[in-house]
């Protein structure tokens, strides 16, 4: 073989040239030192599956099988400041996320998110950045027998938390968005029949009055139980919750339901319309202790309070209410483009939409 420098013939596999002294095997160059603030990569002692460690600002980013993988992890964080947030657990992310999100939602939604958080108890102490779709999916799969809307709420929570974590530069991918939930089983909506409504009108109890108020406005039960007296007028109320489209909307009262609103308005003992109700003031207790027992007593097929909303919508469609008006009355999210952009709607028009044909349109009396 020839020397790599002077090209003199030297013995095979010689380490050095005997003529010029050049070392024949190239020396392995040491890796360049990373610039300050760029993090560090080092190897742990002993036999380990993932011996290479990537760290930055004294915070361990992760453990890797190969050195190159650890270096790539640091490269992804190049130019980004790193704080203790990077190692936040599921519980810590939830606490930080809800500080912002809970300011924008109602009490009912807060309770739903709190229940969803409890479902993920097995993940509470795990670092959020280490969680993958399979981790979330495993929890979701344990609740397949629950309703589609309930399981969807679980997914919605982790999706929102993941978005927050991406914003805070803790993760780069929303793995929760890939979680699948059981398909929604379509079933015919329960509504109150004409005979059911006649039974309620004949009963005359305050519980029956409240059900008739829901039937005459299409309000959610939570919206009615939190409705202030000051927002209740003779022919309409101003209320709503849940979504931006649903809050503070004009809700006309069908003519047959106005007497019941007047009844509670006259008996109110506080800021809320139903404050004078002699029964339950908590909507959950009202369902269990008054609503369902009333249906059973009157021989009405068991159906949720939300059936009053379906009944209202069904009657409105049958009576020819304009779709864009109905969407606004019910406070649906997808009504806004049609109504706000193409249609001018005033209070008179909303009330007229639910008036019987023989009733003339007059100015609203507050």
Task: Briefly summarize what is shown.
This protein is mainly alpha-helical and 366 residues long. It has 14 helices and five strands. It has helices at residues 67-76, 90-101, 107-119, 133-141, 148-167, 194-203, 206-215, 221-225, 258-267, 283-298, 307-318, 323-330, 336-342, 347-352; strands at residues 40-43, 52-56, 59-64, 236-239, 249-252.
The CATH architecture of the largest domain is: Orthogonal Bundle
- Proportion of residues in β-strands: 5-15%
Termini, distance in Å?
Answer: 107 Å
- CATH-derived topology of the largest domain: hpI Integrase, Chain A
CATH class of the largest domain: Mainly Alpha
Enumerate the spans where pLDDT stays under 50 for 5 or more consecutive residues.
335-345, 360-366
The structure class reads mainly alpha
Envelope shape: rod-shaped
**CATH homologous superfamily caption of the largest domain:** Intergrase catalytic core
Provide mean pLDDT, rounded: 83
H/E series: EEEHHHHHHHHEEHHHHHH
Give structural notes:
With 366 residues, the chain is mainly alpha-helical. It folds into three domains: 40-82; 87-178, Orthogonal Bundle (DNA polymerase, domain 1), CATH 1.10.150; 194-352, hpI Integrase, Chain A. The chain contains 14 helices and five strands. It has helices at 67-76, 90-101, 107-119, 133-141, 148-167, 194-203, 206-215, 221-225, 258-267, 283-298, 307-318, 323-330, 336-342, 347-352, and strands at 40-43, 52-56, 59-64, 236-239, 249-252. The strands form two sheets. A three-stranded antiparallel beta sheet has the order 1-2-3, with helices on one face. Strands 4-5 form a two-stranded antiparallel ribbon. Strand 2 (52-56) and strand 3 (59-64) form a beta hairpin. The longest helix is centred in the middle third of the chain and has 20 residues, at 148-167. The chain is rod-shaped. The termini are far apart.
